[in-house]
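Course assignment 3, question 2. Fill in each field.
Student: A.L.
Task: Predict the tertiary structure for the chain below.
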Amino acid sequence: MSEKWDLTDIFASSDDACVESEKALSLCRKFREKYEGKVASLEPMYFHDCLSEYATVCAMLNRLESYAYLVWSTDLNDKTVCAFYQNMQDAVKLCNKELTFFEVEICKNLDYSQVILPDNNDGRGKRAWLKKCLKFKPHTLSSELERLFCDQQSVADYWVRLYNEERAKFSVEIRGQKYTEGELMQLYNAQDVSLRAEAEAARMKWYEQRQDLFTLIYNALLRHRAIAQEWRHYAYAAEAANLSNDINDHDLKNLVDTFAKADSPARTLAHRYHALKAKLLQCSKLPYQDRLAPYPFEDEGSRYTLEEAKALILKTFAEFSPEFARIAEMFFDKNCIDFYPHEGKADGAYCMEMPVGCLPRVFVNFNGYVGDIDTLAHELGHAVHEHLSKKYGELGREKSCAQAETASIFAEQLVFDALLEAEKDPQRRFILLAKHIEETIATTHRQIAFHRFEDMAHQERAKGEVSAQKLQEMFLAVMDNYLGPSVDTNSVQYIWAGIHHFFEYDYYVYSYCFSCCVVNSLYEVYKSGKVHNFAEKYMEMLTDGGIENYRQALNKFGIDASSPTFWQDGMHLFEQEMTELEALAEQIM
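Answer field:
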């Protein structure tokens, strides 16, 4: 097992990727010459062949774009790498421009009732893809306009690149030592209260000094997205994301209200936790940076080696499903994971989906804390999910953002449960439970706060350019709502600019909360033992992620996702954990 990933099975070098991009453009042009204006009139057999050719080209483009991002995200300070990444993005956009006619003709002219596809996995995958494509029929423009939007997206990508490269320059000095943002975040785990405060002050100052730049970038991206909304006739800003996630506006509103409405029981769970932490840290109000701080009785030096983390994760996965563990271990064995933070490497974590024939790649910044183990388990859950979904081919493996988060959060819950079950000491058990609750709050309440900020930003941008001060005010409002009265949010308003999801994606953040509620409901069923062969059915659910929606998936486990209380029910597990934590706190005190 290497500490860095090996990308040579994707491309031997960036030069090879550049050569492949030229081949891809040639194939796209030939595809357009062969099929433009004819898609809807093709005989069933030839239409199937056409879909297969399209899938092959899509796989090439996915491989190019993914490889470029993988290389770039581990070396953001290298200008040559940055230029390569941008060139690959431009090349892929040029290819997509040649292909725009295909989905346009499917949406505008295809009679789906006349489509005949083989009754096998490949056919099921293509059928599911077509149905997803046709959902966007009312919002599909002419081929000419779709090509224009491809070009417009290329320009928007430069704004995203500028944002990421500016953040990669993050460097502050604390007590004579320089820190990147990823390194600085480790200081929030220090027992030294003043050190945590210094780290937070330095981080806030760095973002405050760049508010004008980040505000300009975000305004440009918001305007870009508003143009698409207007031309595609979406009724509201989140509609495109909701269509992709197969969730309607009413369901999304219920989800948001569950975590943000003043009288919602779920909203008070985060407030209860923060009040308890403030009490145990003996402060009237918890400084913002201390909401994740270690407790006074926490062992600051308690860390796991990478080998220990690997062993724990794989053992836990194997106890749930030997097949799940076998697939996860493959990513270690085949060097598909980049583990450690370093200068120029992006912060955070992700799993890069790859086309059929390539293994997914996992990106983390591992420092040995329990949270890092959770993160590694989370991303491995994504990787296993992606690997299984390839059963239905290149088109059939595509999952909604909300469904894609399900396997990752479930994997994280498995590892946490294993850690908690093995721990009998009240103080150490308290710490494990507290850290897990903090993660749950970050996945649910915090992401809904982010979603509400996005919504406000879109609404304000419709009136004109949004000032840095207005963005700060909106962000502070939503953060106060989720953090509650026990947290001091002084200066937190600047951190909106550090949430990369706002810049790179549109309405992605609610997917985390969505999936957490789904997983909590699933996990309760799993622990109850009511469903025979749960693990096997769960693996089937992951495999079928690209061909069925979340309601169909949950029905197999006896869960009614259409219930008005579904999202609130998804917090039962959190409620139980919070009750146990409060009892442990009384015991410890």
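Instructor remarks: The first helix runs from residue 14 to 35. The mean pLDDT is 92.
Grade: pending
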